[in-house]
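Usage

Read records sequentially. Each one opens with the input sequence:
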Amino acid sequence: MIDTNEQSDSFSAVLVSPHPQTGLRTFATAFELPPDANIVVVDCRESDPRTIFKNIREHAPAAHIIAWVKPKEAAKAAELLSIGYYDIVYSLPHLKQVLSRENTTQNLEWRLVRQLNMNAGLLQIISEIARKPDLQDVLQLSVSRISELFSIERVSVVVFDQQNQEGFVVMEREQETLANIAIKVNDYPELQQIINTKEPLIIADVFADNLLAGVRGKITQAHQPPRAAVLFPLIRKDQVVGALFLRSEEPMGELDDQLLAMGHLISSTTAIAIGHALEHDMLLSEKKALQRSKAWVDEQLIVLKELRDFLDQAKDGVLITDVDGVIRYANATAASLMHQTLEELPSRRFRDFLLPHCHALSERALRGDAVGDENGYVDLIVGTSDDIDIGSIVISAAIRPLASPEGVVISFRDVTALREIESELRQTKEFLENLIQSSVDAIIATDTDGSVILFNRAAEQMLGYTAREMVGRANMSVFYPRGEAWDVMKKLRSEAYGGRGRLQMVRKELIARNGETVPVNLTAAIIYEGNREVATVSILSDLRERRRIEEKLSQVQRKLQLTERQAVAVELAGAAAHELNQPLTSIMGYAELLRRKCQSNESEKKAVDIICKEVERMAAIVRKIGQITAYQTKPYIGGSQILDLSDSPPVDVNGDMSEVKK
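and closes with the structure output:
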């Protein structure tokens, strides 16, 4: 392999001294030295030369170590050289002279080694090319070696046609495979230049070279635009048949003449090898092309057979049609679903097996229009008898275009039973939704976080919110006073209120949208999937109307009780008047007899007059009691109430009863 080390510009001389005295990099101790130093100058005028030498050798084992001593210490030179010092200097001019000599010597050594390596590398390349009759191996070797020589990864081999109008990129260093990418030579001014001059071309900076001014816009739009390029023509029989095309991502400085010469030699050797390889490769290429073509055909036959066997075993029906829907292939499942034999399906149109109202939809699908659900599946109805209204089946079909060969593939399955189940489920769902919405009780369902997922019309009327506002947007706790929602869930999960997951009827109060407190009877249940809670449903009965009815009933009952008491009082008064009337009549009669007998006795007459007066007063009271139809009371001794006869209304001749006063 070619040694591509650069010229020894990295010549490095440093000074180990406590006092910097030259333009060299100076280090106070040997421990600070860089390991790549070429020459180390040791100031031995104030230091121990043995210790410093040992330390330097540990840190820079390949460096030449030079001792700087005082002129009067020239006698120490032999001793220092015996220690291992490379040379001795006595002054600053002497030091500069020695360093200049060392630099020149190292550069000469480097150039000699480089030239020997390049010559050896060229011989190696020629030998390797001679051993590789295959064109691909020759090209791969060439791009690999020239890439190593110039330290550039992007290397291509371009081969021109006989008219030098079109080129083919037959090898890429980055891919190391035959690419055979066609390019127009007129689009590459640098290729035209080497065709015309037959000389290598160096473009140090793509964005500054006038040769590329016309194509600079295209270069900047490239995925990896190059910044520099080197082109070597491949010349065969004094004709440029191609080029080694090197592109760098960084601008390039001036190239060494020997490096360019080496590249030119590699390109010339490659061109010769390409000429021989092309002649040999032409026959091999034709043979390989035939072999590849045969292998490809055999492979396609195997693939087609495997595909056919796979499709024949598929549970879905598969049809392949042309763009007009004429069937070219059908698997066994398709024939079975369509109640046809495999021999009857080819050459017939797919739409002929569908009910008339499905024709337009199938034609749109065959044209590639977007039909069906989000996955492109469309329901079609296949008639399976002469009377297409009897024995038809529903198929779910995916209709996809084929690019090569042009056509359409149709895969489908029988979904008749599935669609019937879906219809029944849809009807059941609609019935349940109507049942829930028609309920006179409010029904509210929530998820495990309390978010509302169901809010029927009765709930809207009861609480003043709409389902649109609540479902998915509000939490059930908004209806409860603080802490009540937590109490309901606690009872639901308890065994004491109807069993775990169930809550028997309890009286609760909810808060409506307008702030009104709504009394309700609440029953609730937790919905489970296995042992996991997934939702909670609550049924709420509005008690506001019931409370109003109960209040009215209570008022009526109180009035009835008062009426009954009044009737009892009237009846009692009548009975008392009747019973007291006869005794009073007797008393009044006997009192009158006594009055007549006591006309002569004034004292007895006065007593009898008092008796008669009080009896008449009692008779008046009895008459009032007999006339009572309503009454009112007045306070009496001990906080009790007695009938107030003076304010009690008399009997109404029309039979009406006055309102009771308390």
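Summary fields computed downstream for this record:
- The longest helix spans residues 257-313.
- The two ends are 131 Å apart (CA to CA).
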